[in-house]
Design brief:
The complex is a heterodimer of chains A (284) and B (786). Chain A has three helices and 19 strands. By secondary structure, chain A is mainly beta. Among the domains of chain A are: 72 residues, RNA polymerase II/Efflux pump adaptor protein, barrel-sandwich hybrid domain (OB fold (Dihydrolipoamide Acetyltransferase, E2P)), CATH 2.40.50; 87 residues, Efflux pump adaptor protein, beta barrel domain (Elongation Factor Tu (Ef-tu), domain 3), CATH 2.40.30.170. Chain B has 786 residues and is α+β, with helices and mostly antiparallel strands. Helices cover 53% and strands 20% of the residues of chain B. In chain B, the strands form three sheets. In chain B, strands 3-4-9-6-8-7 form a six-stranded mixed β-barrel. A six-stranded mixed β-barrel of chain B has the order 13-14-18-15-17-16. Chain B has a four-stranded antiparallel β-sheet with strand order 2-10-1-11. In chain B, helix 7 packs parallel to helix 20, helix 14 crosses helix 21 and helix 15 packs antiparallel against helix 20. Chain B is elongated, with a radius of gyration of 34 Å. In chain B, 40% of the residues are buried. Classes of the chains: A mainly beta (284), B alpha+beta (786). At the A-B interface, helix 1 and strand 2 of A face helix 14, helix 15, strand 12, helix 16 and strand 13 of B.
């Protein structure tokens, strides 16, 4: 009995001390260091634009009838849109198949020669126009590749730069300051048939320009990085403990970063290590 | 009766050890009660006085813009006594000595004509027209930045950078608790309230002759909900969102919460302490009566009546209880002063006076006495009913039959020592049970006192390390298109960028309405996540909303129910969507959806209003400076700094609070274990002395008692942990906020620490026991029985 008591008592003390001293392993989110291709990208806003647009003007002063179409309506080549009446009765026809993109005048009444009436856009020939800071535009070349994202569906579209405008324009940024910007135009490559009909004029997209490409590089998600002093570092998992590892990095895109020194393929890194993670902390 | 009086004093002295431990318990319980109740009262008084003298409004409404002429319509409404229109504008504030920007709330002030929400000036004077633009700054911001009268700060107001000169430092009943509209925690360094001359703010915001906020004082007895509805009708064409009353005014909510919590603390904690005290008193007293049986019988037969004798013991009990009261009041006063200091730092009242309220003192005394009296009732009845003749007979020998264990033959082969211990333990199972229960209760209180830090730790970890992993949060003045992503991405040092769209909505389901927030975010968002109860990331689901679990439990919503939402903004767009799931988030009342769905329901293009960034620290300053320059940026919050600010403010308070609580818990544990030891000693003194005479060594007799109590302590460990867990669970339920639900988190180390403390106290009691055993006076002990 005596021995039993002392044993149990001792065990209780031992367990309590262990619980008190030894902290629980922390739960962490983990990613694996991988090797593969890496695209450095520059992402910006863009618009889809119909390359071919035509504005129909009044070719004589007279009376015009009500416009038969609205913005967005599909029109066929030679479809009658309205009628201009002066000495003659001349129908106003659509020059090609496309979509009504702008209406300047839709009500019946007198009209002067030269007034614009309606703009038709041809959707079969689309291009993407992106708006870049002039300092970014110089990093791109004609023929450079890009991905079109967030145009409505999940599959990115491929595009190629056709023109980099060298005329800069001052614009107000989204956050309210002035910036010098310039246009970059891209043509869409290989647009599948079923998507053709879905894209329209002045549709918003995101353009991810491919600035550089590398194969077989070691890369890691950006979420794993943090700074110790002046250098970048990550925490790798060694068994059940976290270990600090200094690394050297190179290019980055919006998700990953290329690691030039310090990590090997297959090692596990902790994503977003919190303040509680230190060298040697137990993790799971 | 002086004979009895002398006996009283002598009994008291003989029991001094127990009296001391009981006094500690009474001190703990009564001190907490008195201090909490007094704070509760002082807060109520301070609040009522402040609100009354400084004309705190009853109803508030914010809108986009209305011409001042509209005020007439509000004035004419039934039940409206006073109205006051004003202009509120938020802007980034640049303070010397701080690189990252702060958020400033600029409120217009009408000088001598101000009728509601008056400003209490602590230093300086009100703004005057002149060469410099003058402001009164809220005290919490001024203190956080050590601003003096005459200091200058820069603010981005109405698209332009302006230099403001501080003419005075003040506070207002509207900001007793200066909580930033965007941060969940007080952050005095990054949020400040400023009052400007109405004329100045008018010109900056281009709101001459217009207003965007209105304060209303209502006449007594008006139906607030009816009035709010009418106000909303008038103001909604001007972009009015929802008017609200004091119950939804942020600062007031916190004050009310604190008041309510103090009330709970004043009742729950002392109840626990005093219940334990009553229990111990009961045990002590019944043992005492048993010991004094012969004495009482003798006195009765000598002619002392039943009443005088009962009265005598009653006086004994009362004296024991009263001994604890004066120190309790003193301690209560001390704790109260500490509260007052805390309140002065947290809540900005013109003056908060802490003094022990007479009501609290009366409650305290009653609380100290009543449980004790109740606990001792049975013993007093015994004294009263004792028949002298019966008592003078020696008590019948207890039943020394073979116990169950022995009959089973289990311990047949055990040594004598073990048999002795076992028999003594099982001899009076009821007493064993009570002792174990007492120790378990003490352990439970130890656990309940220490788990608060665990819970706070876990909440902070969840909110700031797991849910939010960004370095910066940028809030935009209005929702902007995704052009902001490219713009911010271009700033060197920006690593990761994500955006959210949040919209205040009114949720309507059957006959139930509530104003909540609807968050639209992207699948795959890493920087700002929504977590469920287990800590796993929740992905948004398209085609409907996810709702906080709160809605399922409180309002019986089910999967697939159609909910109607009305966006609380200018156009009040409505949409109806199904519930696709529930999330066990802890911050009660939210709705979640994909960003694209939200854009579709609100019929808007893809826009964001909140952006999270992960940045390279080397570029941090440059990034703050760049963001500060952007007119569309309304606020920049730096997570690390928010956390640091919170730790500085709150952590110290929580630590002190925990130390006091644990101190009390240790006192109780000590009292219980020590008492058990002491009482066993006095009961079994005769036994032990006999054993010593028979030849048993000091060590053996010591061990007999030590192990006896030790087994009771060990037996109490498991039930103690269980009760501790249950008590903690109860506490989280009682002390909760309307919006927060506190999760029950007890770190294993807390259990470890509590058990270790108990065992430590036990060992110390063992030392005391050993000393007593060594010095056991045989002749005295042997005389105890007749």
């Amino acid at each position: 009995m005596k021995r039993l008591f002392y044993i149990v008592g001792f065990v209780a003390i031992a367990i309590s001390v262990t619980l008190l001293m030894r902290p629980m392993p922390l739960k962490v989110e983990v990613a694996t260091v991988s090797k593969g291709s890496f695209d450095e990208t520059l992402i910006t806003d863009g618009k889809i634009r119909a390359k071919t647009k035509q504005t129909l003007y009044a070719f004589a002063s007279g009376n015009i009838e009500n416009l038969k179409v609205k913005v967005g309506d599909h029109v066929e080549k030679n479809q009658v849109l309205s009628k201009l009446v002066w000495d003659y009765d001349r129908p106003l026809k659509s020059p090609f198949t496309g979509v009504v993109s702008k209406i300047y005048r839709d009500s019946a009444g007198p009209i002067m020669r030269g007034e614009p009436i309606v703009e038709i856009s041809q959707l079969t020939d689309l291009e993407v126009v992106a708006d870049l800071l002039t300092t970014d535009a110089v990093r791109l070349q004609k023929g450079g590749k890009a991905h079109i994202l967030n145009w409505g569906m999940d599959t990115p579209l491929e595009a190629e730069i056709t023109v980099i405008s060298h005329a800069g324009v001052v614009k107000m940024s989204a956050l309210g300051v002035d910036e010098e910007r310039t246009d970059v135009r891209l043509k869409l490559l290989r647009v599948p048939q079923e998507i053709q009909g879905k894209l329209g004029d002045t549709y918003h997209v995101d353009v991810a320009f491919l600035v550089s490409h590398a194969d077989e590089v070691i890369k890691v998600p950006l979420g794993a990085l943090f700074k110790t002093g002046e250098t970048w570092a990550v925490y790798i998992i060694d068994g059940d403990k976290a270990r600090l590892r200094n690394i050297q990095v190179a290019k980055k895109n919006d998700k990953e970063i290329v690691v030039t020194q310090g990590l090997a393929v297959g090692e596990k890194v902790i994503l977003f290590p919190g303040d509680k993670i230190h060298e040697g902390t137990r993790v799971q | 009766m002086t004979g009895l009086h002398r006996k009283l004093l002598r009994d008291l002295w003989a029991l001094r050890a127990q009296v001391f431990t009981l006094a500690i318990l009474v001190v703990c319980g009564v001190a907490v009660l008195v201090s909490s109740w007094s704070s509760y009262e002082s807060l109520q008084v301070a609040k009522a006085k402040y609100y009354g003298e400084f004309r705190f409004a009853d109803v508030f409404a914010e809108l986009v813009r209305a011409p001042s002429s509209e005020l007439e319509r509000l004035n004419r409404m039934q039940g409206v006594e006073i109205t006051e229109s004003r202009i509120i504008k938020d802007g980034l504030v640049d303070v010397a000595g701080q690189i990252e920007p702060a958020l400033g709330r600029f409120i217009s002030w009408r000088g001598a004509h101000q009728r509601l929400n008056l400003i209490y000036l602590r230093q300086g004077r009100f703004p005057r027209p002149g060469a410099h633009l003058e402001v009164v700054v809220h005290e919490s911001f001024a203190e956080a930045h050590r601003l003096k009268i005459g200091d200058q700060i820069k603010a981005l107001l109405g698209g332009q950078k302006r230099t403001l000169s501080i003419s005075g430092v003040g506070i207002s009943p509207e900001y007793v608790y200066a909580l930033s509209p965007i941060a969940p925690l007080p952050d005095d360094k990054h949020f400040g309230v400023f009052w400007l001359r109405h004329e100045d703010l008018e010109s900056f915001t281009g709101m001459s002759g217009a207003f965007n906020s209105v304060l209303i004082k209502i006449t007594e007895g008006t139906s607030v909900s009816e009035l709010k509805r009418e106000i909303d009708l008038v103001l909604s064409p001007f972009g009015g969102i929802q008017s609200y009353d004091r119950t939804k005014q942020v600062s007031n909510m916190f004050v009310e919460d604190e008041i309510r919590q103090q009330r709970v603390v004043a009742t729950v904690m002392p109840a626990i302490f005093l219940a334990v005290a009553a229990f111990i008193l009961n045990v002590v007293l019944s043992r005492l009566i048993a010991l004094h049986r012969a004495q009482i019988a003798t006195l009765k037969s000598l002619g002392y009546g039943a009443w005088p004798l009962t009265w005598h013991y009653f006086q004994l009990i009362t004296l024991i209880l009263l001994i604890g009261i004066p120190p309790a009041l003193l301690a209560g006063h001390g704790i109260g002063q500490w509260y007052a200091k805390l309140y002065r730092d947290f809540f900005r009242f013109p003056a908060i006076d802490f003094s022990l309220s007479p009501t609290a003192i009366i409650f305290g005394i009653l609380a100290g006495l009543l449980p004790g009296w109740l606990g001792s009732l049975s013993s007093l009845i015994q004294v009263f009913a004792l028949k002298p003749a019966e008592a003078l007979r020696p008590p019948s020998p207890p039943n020394f039959q073979r116990s169950l264990f022995e009959r089973l033959g289990v311990i047949g082969r055990w040594d004598l020592f073990s048999k002795m211990i076992l028999r003594t333990l099982l001899f009076r199972p009821y007493r064993l049970f009570l002792n174990v229960l007492g120790i378990a209760a003490a352990l439970a209180i130890l656990i309940e006192g220490s788990f608060w830090t665990d819970m706070l730790d876990s909440m902070m970890d969840r909110q700031f390390q797991q849910m939010r992993r960004e370095d910066l949060t940028v809030r935009l003045a209005n929702p902007r298109s995704s052009g902001v992503f490219s713009e911010i991405r271009q700033i060197p040092g920006v690593l990761l960028i994500e955006g959210e769209r949040t919209q205040a909505v009114r949720l309507q389901f059957k006959n139930f309405k509530k104003e909540i927030s609807l968050l639209g975010w992207d699948r795959g968002a890493q920087l700002s996540r929504v977590l469920d109860g287990e800590g796993r990331a929740v992905a948004p689901v398209s085609g409907g909303v996810l709702l906080s679990r709160y809605f399922e439990t409180e309002y019986g919503m089910k999967l697939g129910d159609q909910i109607e939402f009305t966006a609380l903004e200018h156009e009040q767009r409505r949409f109806q969507v199904p519930v696709l799931g529930f999330v066990d988030d802890l911050i009660g009342q939210q709705a979640y959806a994909t960003k694209s769905d939200l854009h579709e329901w609100l019929r808007e293009s893809p826009v964001v209003d909140t952006i999270q960034l992960k940045i390279d620290p080397a570029h941090a300053d440059r990034i703050y400076l760049t963001l500060k320059e952007r007119p569309m940026v309304a606020a920049v919050t730096i997570r690390k700094l928010l956390l640091k600010s919170f730790n500085e403010l709150v952590a110290e308070m929580i630590t002190t609070f925990t130390v006091i609580l644990v101190g009390f818990a240790v006192a109780i544990s000590g009292a219980v274990i020590f008492n058990t030891t002491r009482i066993s000693l006095s009961e079994r003194g005769w036994e032990m002395a006999s054993l010593r005479i028979l030849g048993f060594s000091v060590k053996t007799t010591f061990e007999l008692m030590f192990i006896d109590i030790g087994i009771q302590v060990l037996l109490a460990l498991i039930p103690g942990i269980a009760i501790g867990y249950w008590l903690s669970y109860l506490s989280t339920h009682m002390i909760h906020n309307d919006t927060f639900k506190f999760p029950l988190v007890i770190d294993l180390s807390t259990y470890g620490g509590a058990v270790l403390t108990m065992l430590g106290i036990f060992l110390v009691s063992g030392l005391y026991l050993y000393r007593k055993m060594k010095r056991l006076d045989f002749s005295e002990a042997l005389k105890a029985r007749e």
